[in-house]
Amino acid sequence: MANLTASGFLLVGFSADRKLQILHALLFLVTYLLALTGNLLIITITTLDRRLHSPMYYFLKHLSLLDLCFISVTVPQSIANSLMNNGYISLGQCILQVFFFIALASSEVAILTVMSYDRYVAICQPLQYETIMDPCACRHAVIAVWVAGGLSGLMHTAVNFSIPLCGERVIHQFFCDVPQMLKLACSYEFINEIAVAAFTTSTAFMCLTSIVLSYIRIFSAVLRIPSAEGRTKVFSTCLPHLFVVTFFLSAAGFEFLRPPSDSQSAMDLMFSIFYTVIPPTLNPVIYSLRNEAMKAALRKILSKEEFTQRKMHLKAIFKL
């Protein structure tokens, strides 16, 4: 193990039993394929159907793209490690994994905040919606989301990998998890990482506060709607988003803010799955299950007439 971890780390995943490793790899593979299919469907539908070219679905498309990238950072590597019965990950791979994991997680929090503001403007200020959420403002918001995530990932990666490590380079997780890596740091050598983590946590708390305030105003406006059908329509677009935000932030917050322990428990692995694997898999289902526009667009794309029209359109393009 000393030779293996001289230039990298050893990821200790779910079990050392070979049968359980194969089971873990199969379960993760099925979950990954489901997440891949669901998020690609949302990206395809919101791109091809012109009726879904609105700010809400524009942000949903970028959330699906983030989810697709987010789950691809950790799960394929974990599947490969389990199948090969080898938890080794090189230093370069670990650096890239930490960077993209933090960057995409931060971007996801930011895009969820933007989506909540979009719902607030649509419901509470409908007459000004097209002016406030014009295409230019939406593009700038998405650019800001990706840039903010990249900067957050860059800060964490630069600080985290400048800390001297003491002892064996064994990470009790199925990916290069920052809280687990801090346990390997020499005493009192990770003060810079704590400062960066405090800044990131403060930013996430401001995003959460913004989301909560947006939904307080949304629900107060919805309760004043006299029509039960109108209230149902609003809740069908807001409740899925609120569920996604609550699930993702509560699981991630529990993992990152709780006091560190010297021993790894099943609870640590369970909560890491809750914010790394489950949200990207469930988001497509949550956002499309009660959304009639999404289901109608999916039926239209899968219909024979639509398929024939797109086939003829592609043939005409290739002839040109």
What does it look like?
InterPro entries: GPCR_Rhodpsn, GPCR_Rhodpsn_7TM, Olfact_rcpt, Olfactory_GPCR. Belongs to the G-protein coupled receptor 1 family. Its main location: membrane. Putative odorant or sperm cell receptor. The longest helix has 34 residues, at 91-124. α2 packs antiparallel against α3 (91-124). This protein has 12 helices and 3 strands, in the order βααβαααβααααααα. The chain has helices at 18-48, 55-84, 91-124, 129-132, 135-160, 178-182, 191-222, 228-257, 266-276, 278-289, 292-302, 304-319, and strands at 8-11, 88-90, 170-171. With 320 residues, the protein is mainly alpha-helical. 76% of the residues lie in helices and 3% in strands.
Biggest sheet overview: 3 strands, mixed
Q: How many structural domains?
A: 1
Question: What radius of gyration results from the CA coordinates?
Answer: 22 Å
In the sheet with the most strands, the strands line up as: 2-1-3
Beta-strand percent range: under 5%
Apparent shape = globular
SS content category: mainly alpha
Helical residue percent band: over 70%
Number of helices: 12
Unreliable stretches covering 5 or more consecutive residues: 1-5
CATH topology: Rhopdopsin 7-helix transmembrane proteins
Total beta strand runs: 3
So, CATH architecture? Up-down Bundle
Order of helices and strands: EHHEHHHEHHHHHHH
CATH superfamily placement:
Rhodopsin 7-helix transmembrane proteins
